[in-house]
């Protein structure tokens, strides 16, 4: 198993703004320049699937495993012989909103999917999170 996590504490946004940003899946490509498109049929809730195409990559299906409004969502992308979990947590603290994103890859070929996908995503997390905060602050 491979795991990488990144946290940031900010007073620029609320957990409600962050939730609003993420639940509007069909507009993820507006603020995430690494995404060609993202589509969600139905609501941002457990069991529903997101279809996403990263720029320069193949279209993938992402399943929402858990959604707790304004607090947390967990999703999974299934690859051959591995799964990548993406956990987003929004926690109010005395210093501001703590946002934590954790990527985990499990499975027989996890080493391969870490090399092909997950490490690049993990390396981009600090910058991506700043862009998410910037976009959410306008909501």
């Amino acid at each position: 198993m491979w795991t990488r996590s990144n946290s940031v504490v900010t007073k620029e946004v609320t957990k409600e703004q962050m939730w609003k940003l993420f639940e509007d899946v069909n507009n993820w490509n507006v603020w995430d320049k690494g995404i060609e498109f993202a589509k969600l049929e139905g609501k941002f809730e457990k069991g529903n699937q997101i279809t996403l195409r990263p720029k320069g990559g193949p279209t993938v299906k992402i399943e929402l495993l858990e959604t707790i409004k304004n607090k947390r969502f967990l999703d999974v992308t299934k690859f051959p012989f591995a799964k990548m979990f993406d956990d987003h947590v929004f926690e109010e603290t005395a210093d501001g909103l703590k946002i934590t994103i954790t990527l985990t890859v499990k499975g027989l070929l996890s080493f391969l999917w870490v090399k092909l996908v997950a490490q690049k995503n993990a390396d981009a997390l600090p910058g991506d999170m700043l862009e998410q905060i910037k976009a959410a602050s306008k909501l």
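The mean pLDDT is 97. The chain has one domain: 2-136.
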